[in-house]
């Protein structure tokens, strides 16, 4: 369910198409997206690129791609069709990332104090397609997995789930329609999601390239070195998080947040190159959780694995699928 939800939303934002992946699993967009998302970092071509990046131009000439060529052809053809429709006035007023990138192709000029005009370089069609595909690749898996882990945490901590439902009822009495401002002011919801992302960050590690040689604690890091930051390990460091294996949303209340080291919590990275989709991902999670908990509660069943065993992948994933059950709330009409 969470996979279908995140796929529908990111596809709408990235390619301006509305799909119902849960009820239409054979839709061409759905099938091609699933092919694209079967990304294996240990595939020979990808390992070769990571180990020998200088050969990327050669691989381009050989038409070696991260994704299957048929998938790339499908999405490029779809993008060209959508772009032509926009140019003809069909859905031209739709506000989405695709339209923003298409608008960047309109060459403009910028003036410097010396009076010299410089044309602004817009994105090419290939660059727009690449950005759209990366948005889907990064957004789908992270949102889907984070929601699954959050549901697991709530199902195994019923008192926290109950308190969250009480905040939801106070904010949206009688299942009132959700509004952006109201959701963004829900403090306990924010605490619950933050703690779940601490325990199960979307990526177990981050990478940064050293811009200049520097010495830290007696260790010299040369310019150009790729530095890996173990965010998962930091999130379980008892120096910063007492009893880190316990699910405690109170770690993120106003008082505790003020004393936290900002670099001990990195679900979306930090600094100027943190995740560009952070706010969007958090909003998707909040909307989904509030909408579901208005009518249902998460609960464990005999197939639920407690505790979870995790895979050591690029993205944090459980070894076995998270199996839970939805229990209808007594006051709701099902």
TrEMBL record:
Q: Does the keyword Transmembrane helix apply?
A: yes
Q: Which PROSITE patterns match?
A: CYTOCHROME_P450
A UniProt-annotated Pfam family: p450
* Residues annotated as transmembrane: 41-59
Q: What class of enzyme is it?
A: oxidoreductase
- Residues given in the record as heme binding sites: 275
**Keyword tags:** Heme, Iron, Membrane, Metal-binding, Monooxygenase, Oxidoreductase, Transmembrane, Transmembrane helix
Q: Which InterPro entries match?
A: Cyt_P450, Cyt_P450_CS, Cyt_P450_E_grp-I, Cyt_P450_sf, Cytochrome_P450_3A
Its function, per the record, reads: Cytochromes P450 are a group of heme-thiolate monooxygenases. They oxidize a variety of structurally unrelated compounds, including steroids, fatty acids, and xenobiotics.
Q: What is this protein called?
A: unspecific monooxygenase
* Species the sequence originates in: Latimeria chalumnae (Coelacanth)
């Amino acid at each position: 369910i969470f996979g279908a939800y995140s796929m529908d939303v990111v596809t709408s934002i990235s390619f301006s198409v509305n799909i119902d992946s849960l009820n239409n699993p054979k839709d061409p967009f759905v099938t091609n997206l699933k092919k694209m998302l079967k990304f294996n970092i240990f595939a020979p071509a990808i390992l070769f690129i990571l180990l020998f990046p200088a050969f990327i131009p050669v691989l381009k000439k050989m038409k070696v791609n991260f994704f299957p060529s048929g998938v790339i052809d499908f999405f490029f053809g779809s993008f060209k069709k959508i772009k032509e429709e926009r140019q003809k006035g069909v859905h031209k007023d739709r506000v989405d990332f695709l339209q923003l990138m298409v608008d960047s192709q309109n060459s403009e000029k910028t003036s410097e104090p010396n009076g010299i005009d410089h044309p602004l370089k817009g994105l090419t069609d290939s660059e727009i397609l690449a950005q759209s595909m990366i948005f889907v690749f990064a957004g789908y898996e992270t949102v889907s997995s984070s929601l699954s882990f959050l549901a697991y945490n709530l199902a195994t901590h019923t008192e926290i789930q109950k308190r969250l439902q009480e905040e939801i009822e106070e904010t949206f009495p009688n299942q009132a329609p959700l509004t952006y401002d109201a959701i963004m002011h829900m403090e306990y919801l924010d605490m619950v999601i933050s703690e779940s992302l601490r325990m199960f960050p979307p990526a177990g590690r981050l990478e940064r390239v050293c811009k200049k040689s520097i010495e830290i604690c007696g260790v010299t890091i040369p310019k150009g070195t790729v530095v890996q930051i173990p965010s998962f390990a930091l999130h379980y460091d008892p120096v910063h998080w007492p009893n880190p294996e316990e699910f405690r949303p109170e770690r993120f209340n106003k008082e505790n947040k003020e004393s936290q080291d900002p670099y001990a919590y990195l679900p979306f990275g930090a600094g100027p190159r943190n995740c560009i989709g952070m706010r969007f991902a958090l909003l998707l999670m909040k909307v989904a959780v509030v909408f579901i908990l208005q009518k249902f509660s998460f609960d464990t069943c005999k197939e639920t694995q407690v505790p979870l065993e995790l895979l050591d992948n690029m993205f944090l994933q459980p070894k076995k699928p998270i199996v839970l059950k939805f229990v209808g709330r007594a006051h709701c009409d099902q």
